[in-house]
Amino acid sequence: MNKARASLEHLYRVFTAPEGSDSKLAQIEQHLSVNLADFLSRHVVARATSLEQIEQDFNDFRVPEDPEFVSDHAEKLLNKLVANSVNTYSPQFIGHMTSALPYFHMPLAKLLVGLNQNLVKIETSKAFTPLERQVLGMMHQLVYQGDEAFYSTYLHSANHSLGAFCSGGTIANISALWVARNQLFKARGRFRGIAKSGLQGAMQEYGYNRLVVITSQRGHYSLRKAADLLGIGRDNLIALDCPGQTLDPARALEMGQQIQAEGGKVLALVGIAGTTETGHIDPLTELAAVANQLECHFHVDAAWGGATLFSNQYRGLLACIELADSVTLDAHKQMYVPMGAGMVLFKDPDASNAVRHHANYILREGSKDLGATTLEGSRNGMAMMLYAAMHIFGRQGYQLLIDISIEKARHFANLINHHEDFELTTEPTLCLMTYRCVPSFVKQALLEAPHLQPALNSKLDELTVWIQKSQREAGKSFVSRTRLTIEKYPDQPISVFRTVLANPLTNSQHLQEILREQTEIARRSPLWNELQAMCLQEA
Ligand SMILES: *Cc1c(COP(=O)(O)O)cnc(C)c1O
Questions:
Q1: Pfam families per the record (predicted)?
Q2: Model confidence at 308: pLDDT above 70
Q3: CA dihedral 140, 141, 144, 150 (to 10 degrees)
Q4: Is this structure's pTM higher than 0.70?
Q5: What does DSSP assign to residue 439?
Q6: Among 177, 215, 222, which residue has the most ligand 1 atoms within 8 Å of its CB, making it the best to mutate?
């Protein structure tokens, strides 16, 4: 076999010359562009390979000494990596928040990589900076509905920003709480502000003995990371329980008042507009009032649910989101943009000045460099993908996508409600919901013998885990699972399947097929008989 050799000539070729049109890489490119779904269904093979087996392919810890031809390497990637990856495009994979993408992102991704702009500063991004500001403005308008005069003042203002584009909801949540923290502990008198003097000085100056953030148990774990990073501490992220899946405003108020009466301070109240696990939306109007009473920052984590604002039919579900001081959105979820597209938006265009940073060689004062108020440094031009998607779909296109997802979830809920061996555990608000397999004879026992509930529920937990794992390993379809407390069983968290019906290619047949596969797995499992024995014993 022809072998590549390290030489300037080889390097030069790698940087410049595309391989021949019949090369392996060219074939891959062609196939990807023409029919992505077909490419994935051929190359991502659904075989039961254990992670341990796959690890064998990734065991070499030495940097390879010799170069390889690009095409040879591409072949290896196909066999080792692509073959054993996850087919997120599959309409029967309904457990992920990131699913199929519209095809135009493929060539656009190539353009993005080719241009390799860096949004940290104008010098390395030029037109990408105003584009990103415009995208932030569009999202800001979607949430806050400002008027013409507002956006003409602030959209491109060097001294303001309507938000920050970032890699995802995690960074967005961290950024929101970072701004809230720095706004709370601003400079006064001889105190130079928390950004310069640190948390200890701030707590002393302001005389608080504790700083907390309040949310519900459905709050995303990124809030815990934020509390950790910002010096608040994970234990001070207070996650109130929520058997009804939404944060109870009265309880949030009571908790906040208690902490403040004891000398602490609530930094922020976080409402969730579309919880990651069940898709529920917190009562934003009431929570805004609570934040007002507690005189704290009100953040809404709409990473998942924010795109619902595109739908005239369903945007009312997020009513009063405009009362939030900051909002997190993820374009790589229900806006069908490739991963790496999150945003935080601020109601007040001045807010992000609380974290503004200047440096000499970059981010000079008065410059429009976006990096001055973002947590991340070098960043790619991902905003272009959202810009393109918003133009190619239009609000009406996004509305259709949102509407069909929600309607599909209601349809699936209906299928489950009418199936003798399943139980819907949380109703869909958005296109997310949870359910579990409860054989009909167990349903009856749960009703007739309440004292058996704890034991039956534990056994059902085992069944849920068993089914979910077996289904995942078989590789034809995928639902995820989580553990929740629901109103029906307030004293015992239960394991449930979690489904996300965001893939527009998923249809009713796929959903029925998933339920059929799940009942089949359940009936074959030893747990089915064990449940039967438990119920019989009682009868
Ligand atoms: C997905 C999600 C996040 C985190 O977003 P990443 O993009 O994964 O960092 C935060 N909050 C909610 C509600 C989410 O659904």
A1: Pyridoxal_deC
A2: yes
A3: 100
A4: yes
A5: -
A6: 222
